[in-house]
Specification:
Length: 70
Amino acid sequence: FPYTTLFRSFYGGREVQIENYRRILEYNACRLCVLTQYGRLLLVGEGIRIVSYSGEEMRVEGRIDQVTFQ
């Protein structure tokens, strides 16, 4: 399963660093969906915000209640 190549780190449901994403498909305070080389990664929660991102890495903060891979 590709989670090890997507997540650099995951901190207690409050912060996550995502690597190897291709683009942002959906983004609001409750949902973040990014396209990866393996499919779509969906984060669901409250107060979700992208703190920083580059072409290779993204740091997201907020209360992350659910992580799914589609």
